[in-house]
Amino acid sequence: MDRTIGRDGAAARPPPPPADPPVTPGEPALRHWAGADAFALLRGLESARRGLCEDTAALRLHAHGDNATDAVRRPGAAVWARRALAGPFSGLMTVLGVLLAVAGSPGSATLVLVVAALGVGLRLWHAARSDRLSRELRAHAATTVTVRRRPAPGTAPRDSEVPPEDLVPGDVVLLGAGDPVPADARLLHARDLLVDQSSLSGELLPVTKAPPSSREPRPAPRRRPSRAGTDDRPLTALPALLFAGSTVVRGTATAVVLATGAHTHTEELAGRGRRPRPESEVDRGLRSVRRALVRCMLLAAPLVLLVNVEVSGDVRQALLFAVVVTVGLAPELLPLIVGTTLLRGAARLRESGVLVTRPEAIHDLGSIDVACLDKTGTLTEDRVVFTHSVDVDGRPDPAPADAAAVAVRFQTTPRDGLDDAVSAADRDGSALLAHGLLTRVEELPFDHSRRRSAMVLRDAHDPGELVIVRGDPDTVLPRCTRVARDGGAVELTASLRTAAADAAAGHRATGLRVVAVATRRTPLLRPLGAGDDDDPERDLLLLGFVGMVDPVRESAARAVERFAEQGVAVKVLTGDDTAVAEQVCARAGIAVTGVLDGTGLDALNDVALARAVARTTLFTRLGPLQKERVVAALQARGHTVGFLGDGLNDVGALRIADVGIGVDGAVPAARAAADIVLADRSPDVVVSAVEEGRRTLGRATRYLTVTAALNVGNALSVLVASAVLPFLPLLPAQLLLQGVLFGVAALSLSFDRVEPGWTARPRRWDTRGMLWCMAVLGPLASAFDLVTFWAVWRFLGLDTPQEQAVFQAVWFMEGVLSQVLVLLLLRTRAGRAARPVVATVSAVVLAGLAVPFTPLAPLFGMAAPPPAVWPLLAAVVLPFLSCVAATRPLYLRHVLGIRAADPRQEKERIR
């Protein structure tokens, strides 16, 4: 039968806790209860090992509220509406609609407001669709937790399943392998307990948890007493505490709940993801665009008003002229165009497994110049695999791996990642063969203080028992007296012991996780008691070492190369060990120019850290606040930062990064804080998302720069016309219809190709390029408008108020034709336009030329011009397009920032 073998060592009982427990929930209370003995703990929580009474639990549930630990909450309709109305130009278009109504043009006012409503509606639709997809991603099966309660005082306790939401402080919960930890709790009893708390601490492997006990001391080297006499290790390093969001991997536990709901450590970390998001690069760019356009409006509108009042003396007409100039300067369909390009970009990203939860993040993706990646699960595959098995001299030897695989084969406790990796080392089927010859007698599971495990097996053919020990070389080597060498067993001398320790240290230095394997043949062991000298883990024969590694993803190296090609620097932020992280970076092709660990980071102030991040590639042993500081320091240096994370320790950094990137398997709070969610953890997906972000930003930038320049030309033309014409050159409704037709043509840009040079480096909303385009193309367009005026007066004789409807129709046709063709001419240098672009532009040109000849003309105040208008349009538009073509190289260089390249190379890079 199985025997239970106690853990080694003993420790003094921890000092008694203070008489008064901390009243403030949070970290001080958790630290206080972590070191308290069970009696003081239960007395302070007014609970008992038999659990709470049902009535007491109900009262506490009413007082503390539900144990709602999921930080992901669905926003209401009011929140969606506020986000949609907060668009950059929604308020501007509303003001223009009101001004048009005041100026006596209700039809034009209605049209402006309808266009603004379309942009708001598009944003609302996308927000609702993203929310639905997000809820589908985070949908999971409902769970329950086993809680021990009493129906009434004096009755026997009973264990029952309740929803996690019904837990209250003081509840006694029972946990087993596979159970999620539903709340922050202090262990009362544990057996072979192994907990995965990687989402909180970033540790790859599960950790051992145990209550304070005289038989389970805390390792002295890891204890760092503070001045107050308390343990100042990170909360997650305290072995007596369990945290909401972690999972039991192995063993069983009985624990008392310390905190629920918003008071848990998990919610404290998750709450950092609900802080207001700082202004992003795109937010700053759009704000600068708004300011530039508003400045132009504030300058032009009063000037037109004063000039027209001085010339005509008609205040109402002067006001209408001023409104026309304002409408001419406003990019009416900017919200709709930007929204459409974002939707198109989101659709393309969704096809590659990327869900966009914040549409504007697509443009921010195009601006990223620093990508902060986690090591575990991003550069690596988030699993441990067997690499090799060697003897103490470092020579390949299958014996250590085979022995370890046999032990795992007979293991009854749930396996962890290291066990699975060791099992995979069984290449020749020796474990299967041994299964028929050996039977399990005893199992000593891995223990946090012992840092090793042992399996006692009985051989059917040989007398006695076989003991297989595997674990940390630092704990296995001291128990070895012999070593397997050259086919035999020799004494483990001091020199051999030193050589073996050096070999293990050398493997660790290369980033490997090393397990020492030793065996012992013994007579039949008898059941042991405390202090028994017949220890099966003594006088061991050291076989050698088994090496394991967290493998680097196949796509990692290529992703790093593509990031370099895109001008994106890669920074690695991890909670893992420095040596392991350095080796992962080396295998992934990341040149480590500097390393900074969490301790060194805490010693730097913000100014010093901002200098340090410029020369540092690898940040190790980081906690949640330290990751935030690294991201903030990079932003302080002017970088646009993308941060990829999946744990609660990443929530704060995800929130403050310009683009927070989560993964499908991330904790709910991390998915809620992220701007985009990846279905695949591979960094290659992030690279593709950055490229798509740049293409999407490029399409919106082309529309904005060309529109702003042409609108400046319209405003200049109206300004000159207001001084010489006895009537409006264009009515507000006509100018708005012209802008709508131009916007419809611009909508097709979301389907167009983008100049390959555009995606070669990070892109931002560059107001300087837009101002350059306005300064060059605007006056050029206005000059040809004035040529149109002169030609209409000179050759068509349309110079009286009675003929203004025909005059306006001619200028309307010329404006639609020239503006749409200019957009097509300046759209890109990426070869032939896509079919949707050609089809849309052709339809818009035909519609614009046909409107004055349709029954719709009177509705917009136009009349059909004479046939002579066609040669006049050709004589004006063709030279204008030739002049624009001459300025095109300057546009590419100064506005788009694209240098001339070999056309053959560009053709090969075109998608």
UniProtKB/TrEMBL annotation:
It is found in: Cell inner membrane. InterPro entries: ATPase_P-typ_cation-transptr_C, ATPase_P-typ_cation-transptr_N, ATPase_P-typ_cyto_dom_N, ATPase_P-typ_P_site, ATPase_P-typ_TM_dom_sf, ATPase_P-typ_transduc_dom_A_sf, ATPase_P-type_domA, HAD-like_sf. Residues 38-99 form the Cation-transporting P-type ATPase N-terminal domain. GO terms for molecular function: ATP binding; ATP hydrolysis activity; P-type magnesium transporter activity. Residues 1-25, 144-167, 204-233 are annotated as: Disordered. Pfam families: Cation_ATPase (PF13246), Cation_ATPase_C (PF00689), Cation_ATPase_N (PF00690), E1-E2_ATPase (PF00122). Keywords: ATP-binding, Cell inner membrane, Cell membrane, Magnesium, Membrane, Nucleotide-binding, Phosphoprotein, Translocase, Transmembrane, Transmembrane helix. Residues 13-25 have a biased composition (Pro residues). NCBIfam families: ATPase-IIIB_Mg, ATPase_P-type. Mediates magnesium influx to the cytosol. This is Magnesium-transporting ATPase, P-type 1. It comes from Pseudonocardia alni (Amycolata alni).
